[in-house]
Structure formats: structure tokens, C-alpha cells
UniProtKB/TrEMBL annotation, chains A, B, C, D:
The gene is dapB. SUPFAM superfamilies: Glyceraldehyde-3-phosphate dehydrogenase-like, C-terminal domain, NAD(P)-binding Rossmann-fold domains. This is 4-hydroxy-tetrahydrodipicolinate reductase. It is found in: Cytoplasm. GO terms for biological process: diaminopimelate biosynthetic process; lysine biosynthetic process via diaminopimelate. Catalyzes the conversion of 4-hydroxy-tetrahydrodipicolinate (HTPA) to tetrahydrodipicolinate. GO terms for molecular function: 4-hydroxy-tetrahydrodipicolinate reductase; NAD binding; NADP binding; oxidoreductase activity, acting on CH or CH2 groups, NAD or NADP as acceptor. GO terms for cellular component: cytosol. The active site is at H136, K140. Pathway: Amino-acid biosynthesis; L-lysine biosynthesis via DAP pathway; (S)-tetrahydrodipicolinate from L-aspartate: step 4/4.
Length: 252, 252, 252, 252
């Protein structure tokens, strides 16, 4: 029988962490060896025999957690925000001294969302027009969403690299805001609606045809398949990887 | 055998008029008795025995055409724009002297579009949130579309009459335009995409659910069923009717 | 200050009942005066001063509950299944002796779902083609869903009453099942997909245009606005009403 | 100034061919040097200086046309059907003797359609569930569409290669046909609706999320960007290529 991967979850009492605990326990190829909350000692990870650490904590503690894991030869899958360039560079320096250890830091673990962004970028150079609509619950405070901004940036970069011009637009009379906001020249529209969770739609148009890529995230369970995929693949990707798409087999 | 309705089309050489000529000829319960273009004499309508006139001309001539029809006891179905309040009042005065004649003036003959607006208005008071997305080809010069503005106005009026407050929105950080424009307090987003024709989506949201009403207009053939429906019903609606919804049986 | 409506919830420990308890407590115009579970005595409803009873129990007990309510002059809003013709007739006989009491029995309290069915029926006679797609989680054992069957029946009845023929279909070569099943002549397709909850889409098509009515039910919170609307309106509808649409103002 | 590519269109009087003539004439980097209809001599291609041949003829003549092109050192972009295995093998033998010549034979030139199939296949191994809905005008005689069948086959092959099991489905009670047809274990549903042209939707679902890939083909102009892309790239792909995706840069 194949041995189960020994996994520890940090931030186990948070909403995401609690989901991860359930997901790891339910995965037949994994064994939950530790579930730490705020204030628990990292040393217990060593005693528990953890080889994989899932960090879903807070920006204040994620760096210390990951450094501890690397120094102890454990691979890390990180969903916590707060990793600026300085932290990333410092982590890479540390990893250089532990060449067998892998770390995945991903801003988004929903497979569908990651695929939507990747497909949108690749497809966008084949179409005259591209616009993005993101839809969220009405308690969200920022517009557009971070995911939509990243998608727009990826799309804009691919189109520029391919020499594709801006989407055509003959608008001369506009009620302010009707045409959405612009992110690197790509129009983005933000809808806020009670009942929704987190959704993104990328619309691509050419003569006589439209391609629509849509992702619906209905609840945070949607992040768990991506977290598990990260755990299963992190050992095979030593060093630092940013973004789950680095682990996906998307060669077409 | 039932007698066929004798129909004349004015503006028969225009794009809409040409479609109407084909639609009337294909309708088994109608007979095309005249098809007039620019410069043709209205007197020929009398000689041809027209009882129904479909006016798809230009703002400059539509008033004269309709007045001629009414004065000669012909019913009129009008898709031409340019009917301001002054013209409408003057027409009502004329119709008062011809109590058996019906005139339908409709800004939109696409049944699906008229139904979308009517359903959106009726449904909107049962949901916390409502937003509108309209999508058109990129050669359109105005944003949002006239249809979306009218839908938003109808929705806003129904919600106000029912005492429903504005859609919730916690946005505090917005990239300018992300949340669309506002029409009577209703958010409207305008997408412009090569390949599209004319599309409208009304999104309604409440706790745990969403209702979406979407209309796609793929080509101007979509206006013809509404024009024929107008011809078939105009005689039963003496006086002036504005808007095709006045002829639809939507009592629920 | 307006007096709060005194409401009792029966089946308060079930999943729907627990949601209803929360919804009533959160409603500013209502007061939860009793929350009964299996085995609790109905007599306590009288002591608690309940004037409105929300029954979300099981088919075995719903009839006794509703009869008790009516006999004690309380209005009832019922979401429990199991009301066959015999039970309904017996209830109407009872209500004849209590002319001031109202009872609402509804198979579906999601406003968006009720509106989708009603709009679909009304719109369907104006289009050549109509088909229904329903989409649910893959643990559902029946296909198509009861809601889709009811929608198809309503649509078929409206089209027949209006003399509209069947949707055109030139299919001569079909891989078995490709064209879905038929309910009263209306094609219905059932999709089963992990991640989904309960969704229905009605597609209506005519020359050059499409009208789409879509309802998404993301969680059972979606039933609560309909339950509260029922409570608020039941006293104004003495006698028996079957179906929430009877309380909706949909005259168009 | 860059030299224009000298292009000939065969089948120039057919509907697709006429579109291709317009598209080549409108492309700034191409020059239409010949437009041949039924009965026109292929020899005129040589006189006209054609270096690229677009074949949009009929199954009876496409093989002869392509062989003539290859034998005269012209690259060929072929949208005509009727290329069975025997013809393809014979063409490859011919091409072996003309190693600088490229031939592209594609069953579908709509970029969005080709991308939808490619993305669906790649994404499908990351989701528990996948189903396909294709929607067409009601005059189509076969169900499901050839495009949907090919997409299902690609999806099934990718999932099998990745060891992903069948989509979960607890259905025990089914009205015949409700769950669609099966193509290599993938459920496919065919909708037929007046007003539609050709549309395909691939639905992928995992815990808490859905990814939707949708392609709408509104008119046959949608094939032209793919044809032009073929002409621009065929010289760089000597030998035989089947399927436009072979020319697309989709490495992700």
C-alpha cells in the first residue's frame, strides 16, 4: 500500500483552515498529523512527523511558519496573503540552502478560477474584443475584485506581446461608468447582487462569434481540491512556485 | 375562408421595411397591397385598398403618414422614432374624431425584449438586488442602450411604488466606472464586443437565489413577429397605444 | 408602532424549520412565539398566542397540524409535501366553516423559481420554440426535477390554450436521449454536476431572437423570503390557496 | 513594405467561398489573385501566381484541387469535408515528395469553437463532473452535433489518460432521455430552438465551483479569422496538419 502523506494544517481554527482539516482527513492518500491554531507551538510539527504544511493563517505569522517548515525540511502550501516582494526574495534565499524543499504560494486555490484566467489570457490574442464581468455578494468593499484585476493584467500582457490592438469601441456618448473601468486597457465591470458568492466571466468576441469563460465559486469548499493538488505536487516542484497554474498540466 | 388583412408597408426600401414586406407576404392571414418608398404618393394607399399601414420610415415623414392613415380610416402600426409629446398629443386629438381607428407606436417590436422589460419590472420588487447588463456590437455610439435605460426606469418605478429600497452595495474602494452607471438608482453596465448584435440581461438577487432574464436579438428578423402581432391586434385597440406590451396578454 | 405578527414554527428542528426560525426572528414585523419539534403538543400554540403557523414538518403530521390551526382560528403557511386531492378537499370543507382563516400550501417558496415558471408560461405562447434545462447536484435521484416538470406542464397548457403548435424539430438522426425527455410535448434536459445546487433555465426562441429565464437556488435560505411573504399575506387571502404565485402581484 | 500573400479561393461561388473572397480582399497582408467556381480550370491558378489555395468546394472535387496545389508548390488551407483516412494517407504520400509545402485540413475554422474543445479537454481532468450542452436552430437533422461529439471524445480521452472516473450520477428514476445521450461516457444534451445558429456549452463542476466554457457562432463570418490564420501560418507548417488547433499557440 502507498504510504499516506503526513500533513499539518496551520490556522486550523479559521474558516479556511477548518475546511482544509476536513479535506485532508477525507483524502485517502493523506494523513492529518497536526492541526495548529493561534498560539500553538511550531515545534509540535516536528514531533508529529509532518512532511507537508498547509498554511492558512494570517499575514502576521505566515512568514515565520513557512521559514520554520523549510528549515525543518517540510514542504509548504500557502494560501495566506501578505507575501510582498521582500518576503518572497528572503524566502528564495532560504530555499537555496534547502534545495529539496518545495513551497507553493497561491493567491487563489479554486481550480476553475485559475483555469479561467489562464484560458482567457491564451485565447485573448485570437479575438478582436475582450471584456470582463465579475459578480459578487453586495458586502464586498472593493471593485473590481482582485481576481478580475489579475485576469485583466494577464490578458493585456498576452495581447500586447502578440501585437493585438485594443478592443474596438465606438462609444461617443456615455453615461459615466456605463463602460466599466479600465485595467491595462481591458474593460472590467463589477456587479454586486444579494445571493451571489464569487463569479467571473470573460467575454471574447470576433466576427460572428463569441467565446465565454465563466467561473462560479459557490462556497469555500471550492478551494480544497486545489489545496490537495498542491500538497500532492509540491515535493516534485522544489524551490518557490507562485500561483497554482504552475502545477497544472495545461500544455495544449 | 377568413379574409386576409390588406396591409401596406411604408418605408419599404429601408432595411426594416424590406423585412416587413417579406414578413407580410409570408403571413397567411395578410395580403400585401402596397409597398411605398420615399417619394411615393400616399394616395395610392386608398386605391390599393389598404386597411392597415405599417410605418417604418423616418422621423421627418412618419407624422404625415400616420395622419393620412387615420384620416382615411386605416389602422397604423408604427416603428419609426421621433414621436415626441407634442406629436403624440396632436395625434390623440385626431384620433378622437376617428374613434374606430387604432394606432400602435412602439419603440421596440422584439417580443423578447418587451417581455424582458415587463418581467423585470414585475419581479424586481421581490428581490433585494437588481442590476442590468446590456451587450452590443462595438460600433454602437451610445452607452447604455436606450432599451436598458427604459428597463432601468421601469424597474426603479416599480420598486419605488412597492417601497423597496436601493440594492445593497458595500463598495468603498472603486476603480472609476467598475460599478457601472446609475439610471434612477439602478446600476447598468454596457459591454461592447465584436460579434454581438443586441443583448440585455437583468440580474435579480435575494438571499440564496438569483433570477436572470436575458434577451438576445440576433438580427432584425426578430422585430417581425411583433410587427405582425401589432397588425393583427390594432383594430381591436382603437385610439393610441404606446408600447407593444399594451397588446400582450401578460395577466399572471 | 405597528404590532408584530405572532408566528409559530412547526418542525423547528428540521433543516427548513431551523431556517424559518431564524428568518422569523430576524423579521422586524414578526415575533416568534413558539418553535415546536417532533412530539411537542399543539396545545402550546394556543397558550403562546400564535396567530400564524408555519408548517415545515413531515407528510405524516402536516394535515393534523393545519387542521388544528384552522380550528383555532390561526392562519397557516405550509411547505410540507404530501397534500393529495383528498386532503385538500377535506381541508376546504373545514375552511368553509372558518371563513376568516387563510391557508397557503406551496410546493416551492423560492420567489425566483415561482416567477420563472409563471413568466415562462406567459411568454411561451409568443415564441415558436421552448425547451427547459434543469441542473442539479449529482446526488439527486430523479430526473427531471419536479419543478421542471411543473414548468413544462404550465408552458404546455398555455401554448395549447393559445393554439400554438409544438416547437419545430427537424431531427431525423438522434443518439438516444440527445434531445432530452418530453413532458406534455415540451423537451426537458437534466444536467447533474458536482458543485451545483438547484437551477432551472427556460429557453424561448423565435426568428432572430432568444429569451432566457434562469433561476439559481444556491441554498435553502432562498425559501425564506417566500415564507415571510406568505405569512404577511395569508390573512388577506381567506380560504385555501395552492401555490405562492397566488399571492404575487404579477398583473402586467 | 511587406509583400502580400497571393491567395486563390476555390469554391468562390458557394456561401463559404464567397465569405472567404471578401475576407481575403479585406486582409491587408493578402492579395486575391484568383476566385474559381465550378468548372473553372485549375491551370489558371498557376497563371495567376497563386501561392496559397483556400479550398471551400465539395467532397467530390477537394482531393483533386489539393493534389493540384501541392504538385504546383502551393500551400493549401482546406475547409471542405470528405477527407477519409484513405485520402489523407494518399495526400501524405504526395506531400513527402514536396517537403516544403504545407496543407491544413480543418473540420472547423471557428477559433472560439476550436478553443472551447481544447480548453474543455485540458480542464476536464481537474473536475469531478463534466457535461455538454449544444444548441442549434431547429432545422438541423442530427443530434448531437458533430462538434459536440468531438468535444466529448476529447474530454473522455483526457480524463481516461489522467485516471479520472466517470462523472457522479445518482439518478435512479429517469423519464427516458432526461439525462441526455452518452458519448464515450460523457453526457451530451441537444437543444433545438428557432432563432439560434450554433452554440456549445461545456459545464465542469467540482466541490463548490463550476467552470463554464461557451461558444456562440452567430454567422458564417465566424469562420474567416480562422481561415486567414491558416493562410498566414500554413507555409511555416510543411506537411499535413489536421485541425486548426495545431496552429494555435496554446502552451500555457
Amino acid at each position: 500500500m502507498t504510504q499516506q502523506l503526513p500533513v499539518a494544517v496551520l490556522g486550523a481554527n479559521g474558516r479556511m483552515g477548518a475546511e482544509a482539516v476536513k479535506a485532508v482527513e477525507a483524502a485517502p492518500d493523506m494523513k492529518l498529523v497536526a492541526a495548529l491554531g493561534r498560539g500553538d507551538s511550531l515545534d509540535s510539527l516536528v514531533d508529529a512527523g509532518a512532511r507537508y504544511v498547509v498554511d492558512l493563517t494570517v499575514p502576521e505569522s505566515t512568514e515565520e511558519n513557512v521559514r520554520f517548515a523549510v528549515e525543518n525540511g517540510m514542504h509548504a502550501v500557502v494560501g495566506t496573503t501578505g507575501w510582498d516582494l521582500g518576503r518572497l526574495e528572503s524566502l528564495e534565499t532560504l530555499l537555496a540552502g534547502h534545495p529539496e524543499v518545495g513551497v507553493l504560494i497561491a493567491p487563489n486555490f479554486a481550480l476553475g478560477s485559475v483555469l479561467t484566467s489562464a484560458f482567457a489570457a491564451k485565447a485573448s490574442k485570437y479575438f478582436e474584443s475582450v471584456e470582463i464581468i465579475e459578480l459578487h455578494h453586495p458586502d464586498k468593499v472593493d471593485a473590481p475584485s482582485g481576481t478580475a484585476v489579475r485576469t485583466a493584467q494577464l490578458v493585456a500582457a498576452e495581447r500586447e506581446a502578440a501585437g493585438v490592438g485594443p478592443s474596438p469601441d465606438a462609444t461617443t456618448t456615455e453615461l459615466a461608468g456605463a463602460r466599466g473601468c479600465e485595467v491595462d486597457g481591458v474593460r472590467v465591470h463589477s456587479v454586486r447582487l444579494r445571493g451571489l458568492v464569487a463569479h467571473q466571466e470573460v467575454l471574447l468576441g470576433g466576427p460572428g462569434e463569441q467565446l465565454t469563460l465563466r467561473h462560479d465559486s459557490f462556497d469555500r469548499a471550492s478551494f480544497m481540491p486545489g489545496v490537495l493538488l498542491g500538497v500532492r505536487n509540491v515535493a516534485a516542484h522544489p524551490g518557490l512556485t507562485v500561483g497554482l497554474d504552475g502545477y497544472l498540466d495545461l500544455g495544449l
